[in-house]
Every structure is written in structure tokens, then in C-alpha cells.
């Protein structure tokens, strides 16, 4: 697409330069296999350069694992991920039984467990990376949650996903909000796991669906999750990622507009402790006219080698006239030794839009903040918590599911307590 | 009555090259509640160093001397303990604190200072009143601390805190710098309101005599090169306004070692 304009500079003047960081976090993960980092040479990408796709819309999509080349860590969409810590998700058969799935809550929704041949498999998603494709080939049965036509769920739908072992496994879920239905679905991930997951989300015409994916895994869990939503006409979709626990969590949510007049809000909250890798790569695909999207991800990092990645791709295709989009990412570095990569990408193929913007800022919680708050009588611990709480609450408040807000506030408190902050 | 006593204070900082540089070279000063002291002096004379040292900023290293508050060793207290003991520093460059609203900050600080949460009804009213007297827009309450505030707004918010926290000793570090005449008046009125209640001692640090038209000092101390070069009553300020700092040495000599913000 010759006319595509790729604007991938973090646009905000608020961005703060941090020692050891490239402006867009371009350095490859030092953990990647096959990557030769040439000592002090800056911007070394190993032997082969990273060649990004000409357009995010042209990324390979396929149900077949064989269509994707084995990963070497230099791929645009894997360059930040420490492949060695995927514990085989990218190069081992996914034969584990995987976490258990239990659906509770709303009584007027339909919950089924179906085989691979069910007609609804593939109704929203096509894998667009190797691990997602591997999971697609490997899963044996899928959990399907359906909110029937014109039904308002009589409570939040809780999908409890509980990992019991670390054998590499695949999992498949489908959430369908049929036309004019309304529901909140919470995916709750706990326990230990090595999991490659695909979640298909169908938002029917006029439906209002909120999907919240909470990752509160045990410390050593490995989880990749592709959550693709296909959004109909005049629908509202809210997607929330909350990543707190796990050794490596890589979320790749996407929203594809297929009918005009729809709105998407995508939120993320992540809190990385020492050694944790929390990655989120999202895509908003404005393929049709007059849709609106808002993306807000916020993360806090504490402890040696806490690493977060946020890549936000927004694609406004030629047909998507009247698009209104804005995405923002904020990171708060609480201690030394942390690393946060933040890359907003906006690709625009038509000028006939309402608005398009993005912002990214990564800042430190520094000694001057601490001095200021302490000089007002606030003890150090309270001062630090005050800042982190306030920072993350901005996202929590947007979720607008009261029970969940309370739970997440508590979860943030636990993180703060665990990090001795 | 309380007394803040500074005796033969020597303070240095570590330079970026790792060397230690002496800034205060023996400062002695006694302030009682109800009194208003002005510290004046050219850039680099150590005025702000004194303010930051009293508040406990980690950058300033006390080599010798003492600071006591009613006999209690202030230098032995952490930054927050000093604040709770009744010391308040209105900062020259108030920092922006991301993610924390003014409302939340003020209430948390008040709770920490008093050892108990303020009564919600009275507190909200007090905050509103103080804000309106300082001509701070009501919507500032929901904004993050100092984030996006202009220089003048930041200074007004410092004085707002002074009025709400009611310290025993208020140290105003060049609160007047960067203020236009109207803002200067508003800020000075705030300080005077609190001072006139009689329970507060004020240490006003300033480069210019301008603010002394609105806040009348009982005592004036002139800092030059880390020492008090001269002290007297309010008449000394008038003399400085007329003559400047020249008679204390060349301005170049007095400001040659000026560390930023000190």
C-alpha cells in the first residue's frame, strides 16, 4: 500500500528519556535465541535486520502452523519477547491438558464445550503469529459462551481458568454476544501453566460486551493469549487486560470493526515485579467507516529486570472514513533495573477521518517526588503507594464493573505489599 | 511558644564530579513562633541550602552544627518526621507528582501530620475556602499535584498547603520568584493570614525586597558566601533595596559558586 503513512514515533513531548533506553525500545530482547548482540554497538539487531511489514494489515494470517516460519526472535512481533522463557510454546508440541475452565455467574447465558469440528470455531479469529497458530492446531475442545439474542446477562460471566501443571498446552475459548445482547465476561487466570491460548470474541450488531482478562498466575507461569474480537454494526466492545502474575505473559488483543457505528475501548493495567516479562501488543483495525476507538494502557514496574512491552497498532484502512481513534500508554518505573518498551503505531490510509492520535510516556518515580510528599509529613511507604495507586486507578476506574474494580484495587495493593513498596 | 534554633551550621553538597563543596560555613539563627525573619542575599549565598537542609533534603550534607526544635534534634529526624514536628518548606520548585490528585494528596498529608483523618465535612469546607482565598480554581482539586500548573499556580498551591497544614515554622524558599504583582499579593496575604494567628514562625527567603512590602519581617539576615554577613530589623531590607548587595563584595564573587537552585 503505497499511500500508507506510517507514523510510529512516540508523539508526546512528555516522554522522558531514560538511560539505557532507545527512544522506541528498538533493542532486541537480550534473551532471544540466535540473537548476537555485538557488545557495545548500539542498535545491533544481530546478523539480520528486523524488516517490519509494509503495513500491519498485511501481516500473515493462517490457521496452519506450517505457514509460519520458526521463530528466531528477530521478527517484528517477537523482538521483545524472551523466546527461551516461552518454555517451548513456540517450538514444542502443545500436548498438555492445560488449565481447567469453569464458567459461573450469569444464569441466562449458554455455556458449551465443543469439539474442533464445531461450526463456530473460527468465527472471529485467524491466528496471526506462530504460537497462536500452534495453539489453533493443538486444541482438542473449546469452551463456548453465548449471550443469546437480545439477552442482558443477569450477572457477570466468570470464566475461571485454573492451571494445574506446566506441560505446554493449548486452549480455545469463544465468547459470542449475539445481536442486542449485553454482558460482562471476566476471564480469570490462576495457578501454574505453560499456555498458548486463543480467545475468539464475536460482538454482534447492537451488542454491548465487556471482556476482562485478568492474569493473576503463579510466579512461574507462561501464558500467551491472542484475543481477537470481531465487532458488528453499532456495537460497543470494551476489552480490559490486567496482567499481574506470571513469569512471562504475552497478550495480543485485537479489535476488528466489520460494521459502521461501533465503539471500542481497550484498557490495560500491568504491574511487573523483578524478573517478570509482561507484554501487550494490540491492534485496532478500522476497516469500515465511522467507528471510534480509545486505547489506554498503564503499567508500573518494580525490581531488577522487570520488563514490560506495549505495542499499540492502530490501522485506519482506506474505507474507514470518519474514524475517531486515540491510544495512549503510560509507564511508571518505580525502581532501578526495570525496562519498559512502548511503541505506538498509527497507520492511516485515508485522510477523511474525525481524529487520530497517540501518546506514550514513561517516567520514573524519583527522589524528588518522594521528598516532596515526605516533606508534607507522609512516610516513604505511603508516599510511594499513593503515587502508584493513583496512577493505576485511572485505568481501574474506567472498567466500570464495581465488583471488579474493588478486586483490582485489592490486587494492586497486594502487588505493592509484595514489592515492599 | 516554640523555638527553632540553628547553631554554627556547616553544610556541603557533593558535586557531579564527586567532590564535596561547602555551601554553608557556620550559620546561627534563632526563630520563635510569632516572629517573621527574612533571609536575603545574592544568588549562591546559601539561602536555599539552609531551607532545604532544615527540611532534610538528602542532597545537603550537614558537616557540623545543629538544628533543634524546642531542644529536639531536627537533624536526627527523617524528612516526614520533620514535617510532623511542625516544619514546613514552601518549595522554590514544587515538583509534579503523577497520578495523585490534589484532593487525595492534601487529605493524606493532613492525616499524616495530625495523626488522624480530618473530619470530612470541615476539611472539605476548609480546603474550598482556602482555595478560593488564594484564587485557585476549584477544578485544581481534581488535578494531579502540580501537574501542568503554571509557576504562579504552583506557588499558590504551596501557600494553600501552608494554610491547611498550619505548621509551627514555615520556611518560604523564594516563594516570590516568578510571581506577578497580583499573585504576589495573593500569596503574601495567605502567609500573613496564617502568621497573624500567632502560632507560626516564618522564615522568608528571598532575593528581592519586593515581597517585603507585603510581608513585614521582624528581623532581616543577609547571607553572603554561606554566612550571615549582617543582620538587623526591617530597616535593613530598605537599605538593601536602595543599595543592593554590592557592599558585601562583588556580585560576581558572591554568585560564582552558585549551584542551581541553591
Instruction: Give the % helix of chain A.
Output: 10-25%
Alpha plus pi helix count of chain A:
4
Q: How many DSSP E strands of chain A?
A: 17
Most residues in contact: chain pair? A-B, 26 and 30 residues
Instruction: Name the structural class of chain A.
Output: mainly beta
Number of strands of chain B: 10
The parts of chain B where pLDDT drops under 50 for at least 5 residues are 252-262
Question: The biggest beta sheet of chain B, please?
Answer: 6 strands, mixed
DSSP helix fraction of chain B: 25-40%
Global Rg of chain A: 21 Å
Q: Strand-and-helix sequence of chain B, N→C?
A: EEEHEEHEHHHEHEEEHH
Computed Rg of chain B: 18 Å
**Strand percent estimate of chain A:** 35-45%
Coarse structural class of chain B: alpha/beta
Oligomer: heterodimer
Mean pLDDT of chain A: 88
Overall, the morphology of chain B is globular
Helix and strand sequence of chain A: EEEHEEEEEEEEEEEEEEHHH
Reading side by side through the largest sheet of chain B, how are the strands ordered? 6-7-8-3-9-10
Distance between the termini of chain A: 49 Å
- Distance between the amino and carboxyl termini of chain B: 30 Å
